[in-house]
Amino acid sequence: MLNAFGGPELVGTLLLIGAAMLIYAVAWSAIDLVTDDAVSPGWLAVGSSLPLAAVAWAGALLGQADFVMAVVLGTSIAGLAIIVGTVLTGPSELELPPSSRAWPLLLPVVLLLLMMGFGARIGLQEAAMLAVLGAAVGAVWRAGDASPTLLTDADVVPVTTARRRLDVLVVLQALLTLLLAVVAGWLAVRGALDLSAARRGLSPGVVGITLISAMLMLPSVGKATFLSQTNRAGIAIGAQVGAVLIALTFILPVAVVVWYVRTVALTDAGAVDPFEMDRVVAMPFAIGFWRVETTVLLALALPLLPVAARRWKPGRTEGLVLICGYVYYLLLITRASNRWH
Known about the structure:
Elements: H1 3-34, H2 41-61, H3 65-88, H4 106-116, E1 121-122, H5 124-144, H6 153-198, H7 204-229, H8 233-266, H9 277-281, E2 283-284, H10 287-301, H11 304-308, H12 316-335
Helix pairs in contact: 1-2, 1-6, 1-7, 2-3, 2-6, 2-8, 3-7, 3-8, 3-10, 3-12, 4-5, 4-10, 5-8, 6-7, 7-8
């Protein structure tokens, strides 16, 4: 019905506005579910990653491989540039959390992704390799991310009673959050497709890297700013690095599996050479993402090595460089908006 009043561009814009509002609500609800007063980078990363998972998996289910790669890589770049840059330019000093020992593992993950680009596709084997690296990251992260909350004897009974009373509400909140995440993912994909269809030369990938990545990043910016203002800048950066690792070693592999199942279901097996089946059902990895986004991610991952080793402590200057560099990156993406066609 909306098409009759404003066409695909109006429909796409309205869908993206709805997606943005739901993404914001889902992110904060998910963060509230997995964190408490003792905020840890790992759990904060898990909570903030739910909207990205919903959008990426919805894109895979709807057969939009370029869109999936755009939101996964674009959101990762935006987080490492904008959020880390914002935290570094904040008032608090950077104190590394124990989980920073897992930060250097982002480099082999990005290098593996760069190697996959040579094949122009990501299949089940490549997804499994990313997942194995993710398991290694999780093991290292868990070893250094424990931050228990100490309770006095007077606090034990009231806290336990409150937890029992809130169990039903917590379950209802979790179910509602998941439902809204599914809706937000569908709205984001449909909005990107309608908007790209209405504007010639604007691909869904560009919409994913620019508009959708900004939507997915906005809740994390708010949380990171709050942590920075309360002298927990290291936790904010650690959570963002963790969110990028989750995106590359869990969200992307699951999206590949979703793509595989969807493609197999829609492919006539009798019409395809058995030796070509793996290539046919693998998710495409556009050369534009391989040349640009993975290279930018590699450039952002390299400085984490001396930071995690405590041999370099970045400050406001480095934060401004990250922010300005990301703005320049977006300008280049906009000018080369047809590079995925």
